[in-house]
Amino acid sequence: MITDSVTLLCPDANSSQITAAVQAALFSYSSQQPPEIMAICAVTDLVVELPSDWVAGLSNVVTLDPVLVPTASQGAGAITAAFNGTSLGAFTTLEVSGANVDASLSGGVFHIQTPPPTFSISSFVVSPATLEYGNVSQAITLTWAYSGLTPTSQTLNGTPLDPALRTYAVAGGLASPVDFTLSANSGAKTASRSASLTYASRVYSGNSTDSHLADLSGLTGVLKANASGSYNFAAGVGVYKYIAIPANYATVNPDTGFIDTSTGFPVSFDTPYSVLSTNGYGYEQNYNVYRSYNKLNGAITIRV
Q1: In what side-by-side order are the strands of the sheet with 259-260?
Q2: pTM of model > 0.85
Q3: How many Å apart are CA 281 and CA 262, to the nearest integer?
Q4: How many domains is the chain partitioned into structurally?
């Protein structure tokens, strides 16, 4: 939204004439929410304000008053003013001041420029952003916000949405990763932003006295896009430390890839073996199961 106020002083014209001129000059701009424009006649001390539905705010102010007087080289007659490229008519005196305002005189026209209106999608979030493989019934919610102008239209993956919406529920049934693209138009500018729903598997870790664990259900599973991170192991008697990583994730060197966070030294693990595991959604996949080379009775945190 443009947030400026423009005041016109018209010592050589009455307020109704200058107001009509400004209305006519900006008629084609009205759909883009032009700035508030006021016509002030010094002779009659009368202020005429354009219709309220043209008012866009007052955070920046542009003031035209009788301080900047045309010099002889500019001619003794009226000078022409233009606001953001739109003609405002002719004036004999003109001054511009205000935040974020640029004014210049060239080619016989006094140009007043304010920053163009901004329009962007400031956030676009998928929640939850990650689902476990096999979870095809989970509904997700998309939420988003805009910065600057207000959208007059918006689409989600090409499907039109009510421009007032800022949240959208997607029913379950998404069995694979999905990319969402939100596109919007403010009437003056366009914006687009993408977000994704991803799928991941659980990485399992924990203690076991079994030297060749074939059932991962007794371990703790954490939904992760990869195996990187730290894993906490409780103390136990005669136990091995196990970490089971989905086979489609990156493999880990059993000699150097597992680090004791308290010492910074590697914890030696045995060569991984494969286990077929089924998660709570009935999804089967192979895991590379890593077991500490030795029994480790103490509590430890291992970083992968």
Answers
A1: 230-233, 300-303, 259-260
A2: no
A3: 36
A4: 3
Q: Are strands 190-208 and 220-224 parallel, antiparallel or unpaired?
A: antiparallel
Indicate if 211 and 274 belong to the same structural domain: yes
Q: Residue 154 is part of a domain; what is its CATH number?
A: 2.60.40.10
| Residues 144 and 228 grouped into a single domain | no
Domain termination residue (choose one: 65, 89, 113): 113
**Nearest by Cα to 146 from 183, 100, 181:** 183
Percent of the chain that is helix, strand, coil (3-state, to 5):
10, 45, 45
Output the six-digit token pair for 38.
């006021």
Q: Give bridge partners of residue 172 from the DSSP assignment.
A: none
Asked if 244 and 283 count as a contact pair (C-beta separation under 8 A), the reply is no
Residue 261 and residue 204: Cα distance in Å, rounded? Answer: 18
Q: Provide the pairing of β-strand 4-9 with 60-63.
A: parallel
Whole-angstrom Cα distance, residue 55 to residue 221?
A: 58
- Print the domain residue range for 82: 4-113
Residues of the chain with pLDDT under 50: 1-77, 92-100
> Do 1 and 59 touch, CB atoms closer than 8 A?
no
Q: What is the rounded CA–CA span in Å between residue 304 and residue 298? A: 18
pLDDT digits (tens, 9 = 90+) for 111-125: 666 656 689 999 999
